[in-house]
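User: Quick sanity check before I run a bigger batch. Here is a single chain. Can you write out its predicted 3D structure?
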Amino acid sequence: MPKSGSADVVVKATIAASPENTTTGAFTFQVNAFRGRDAKGLDQYAGAAIITGTASQTLAASSTGSLTFSLSASSPKTGFIIGHNTNTTLDKEIAKFDVKAENRDVTIKTFKTTIVDGGSIVSAVKLYDGSTLLASAAYVAEVDDLGGVDMADDRNGDADDSSGDLVATFSNLNVLVAKDTTKTLTIKVDLIPITTALEGKTVTAGIDTNATNFTAIDAQDNMLAQAQLNSNTNSAITGKLMTAYTKAPLLTFVSAKIDKTVQAGQDDQADAEIVFDVTAQGGDIYFQTPTGALGTIVIDDGMKTHNNFDAASGDDKGVGTYTFTSTAEVYDANTYLIRSGQTARVTISGHISIVGATGYTHMALDKFL
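Assistant: Done. Predicted structure follows.
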């Protein structure tokens, strides 16, 4: 340091990510804290008294951890679950819920799901983390706010919070959700034998994110209160309606297109096509063309009254030429067969003629018989 010169001394500190306490701190320099040697080789000392920095800094602990819940994009859509007519069917997936942790790592200790079982077809409810079974429980009628239970109403889908819910409670969990990450938890059920009387019965699973249904602690052992549970929505989240059958077709969309054809001096026309796959689940699936012959279908171009589009006016029928083809096995004169576990492709093609009218038209799959 040159004669008559000066230098700034900057002190920095690394603070723990999650300090245990909140306090005010200051840096100080003790007597003779600065030592050096001058140009003559003599040791010099500076600081005749303790020097305290003029600025102080409050060290605050980070916020308590929180959890945000949502229905996962990968949760099953409204559809079928396939059971067996004489045996219990295990691990049928009915809902997935995403759980995101913020501020700190959070560990879930208790997870409660509400079950709406339209036909008493569920024998056990299970909670999975990926392919790992976390817990299994039977659902029970929860005592309502008035001290009673109302299983019948809830089996029919009663959403009144004042009545007892049918709930499955998973306790003694240790599900870690790391800070700023999302974990997907899956609800699966075991089905009792689906007899003829139980075909078509439905079930859903949901969660109600309150501090009674969920208990969780963050990395600093703070118990999450209601404000830290699903603070973005604070509402019930329900999976889609699942219907139980012993066998059912699974339809998978492949492609669709419609191309308008313009011919000078003539009405516009269009070529349309819908392609989808059909998989037989639980047994052989039969489907047929309603006109009584393979390759033909009931014609309905979907166009409402031209320039009006009033649904009450009904659809104009008989406009266009349509064909129906499939890779499925031919069973009889107007019936196709897809054997259990196999997949067949269906293609519907149509040439649509507007016949002198102006308007919009479309081709859509309305029924699968």
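The CA atoms of residues 36 and 42 lie 8 Å apart.

User: Great, the batch can go ahead then.
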